[in-house]
Amino acid sequence: MNLKGKVALVTGGSRGIGRAVSVRLAGAGAFVIVNFARNEEAARETLRLIGEAGGDGKIARFDVSDDRESTDAIAALIKEKGRIDILVNNAGESRDGLLVRMKDRDWDRVIDTNLKGAFHCCRAVAYTMMKQRGGRIVNVSSVVALSGNAGQANYSASKAGLVGLTKSLARELAPRAICVNAVAPGLIDTDMTSAMTEEQRETVLAGIPLSRLGTPDDVAGVVLFLASDEAGYITGQVIGVNGGLYM
Amino acid sequence: MSIEEKVIEIIVEQLDVTREECVPEASFIEDLGADSLDLVELIMAMEENFGIEISDEELQKIRTIQDAINYIKKKKGLAS
Fold it and tell me: Which of B10, B15, B40, B43 should be substituted to probe chain A, the one whose Cβ sees the most A Cβ atoms within 10 Å?
């Protein structure tokens, strides 16, 4: 897959799935803007890995949940690079808890970053992609958007929201050859899932037909495909990457 | 370049129509074949080019090329 000459923005690109996606897109030739909100050191490490893969990119600090900050930052990046071809809405966080104990601020924070953040970034790139008569948006949803998960009311609602966003934008932007899809990762071995106890891990593994956790690269390969010219007839889809955990 | 000329130049580019089709009374949707996405692009291009902001409410009233020209002139303080 060849992404030479294309410019990609990966939100939450400093760690986990976002890092793997950044490296894969850059390895395929795209100039990758690695967004991060807090961990600059991790973002720099992603940039180093991009260089190691023979790719090119830069890091960009902005908080996707902040309307003004994200909109202005993306406008400046588009101006600088002259175009934007690929947006991967990956920035996300979880604040798990059972419903009866869940605080409004935990609900709001997760919805604001995972769902509203994606909305901000989509809006910030759409006009340029429309003018370019093409583009790719990939939203990183989650298996729990489809299956639900006890203790993740906020997280699964935000990820299910991304599915609705994906399908609506797919319809809205289709006349301009912009494809909008989502990936729904299952249990992926990242910082976000490392908080599980050994016991939780074993219970989950028993439910995964491929009987292993996914790797960030398992997800990145699918995102790379969806971002490529080869996926030009795929839009509005939610692709599960979950080892068969949910079918 | 006058506002009229600039508006028509933007329309020709955005809607892929000829200069001859761009008569003042031409309606964007009925005569020039624009769909809702085309209209949004057109309006954003005008905002960019003329450094103005067009609200959704005002947008509803702009149906023809003349409407757009009048609106921009008014906005720029050059009422015709």
Answer: B40
DSSP assignment letter at A37: S
- What's A219's DSSP letter? H
Q: Do B37 and A131 touch (CB under 8 A)?
A: no
In this prediction the pTM is: 0.93
- Residue-wise pLDDT for A53-64, tens only, equals 999 999 999 999
Report how many domains make up chain B: 1
Contact state of A176 with B44 under an 8 Å Cβ cutoff: no
Residue B42 lies inside a defined structural domain of this protein? yes
Neighbours of A198 (CB within 10 A): 7
| Residue B37 included in any domain | yes
CATH number where B15 lies = 1.10.1200.10
Q: What percent of chain B has pLDDT over 90?
A: 80
List pLDDT tens digits, range A20-61. Answer: 999 999 999 999 999 999 999 999 999 999 999 999 999 999
Structural domain containing residue B51 = 3-75
Interface of A with B in 117-176 (CB under 8 A): 127, 130-131, 172, 175-176
H or E segment to which residue A31 belongs: strand A31-36
Q: What share of chain A is helix, strand, coil (3-state, %, to 5)?
A: 50, 15, 30
Residue B80 falls within a domain, yes or no? no
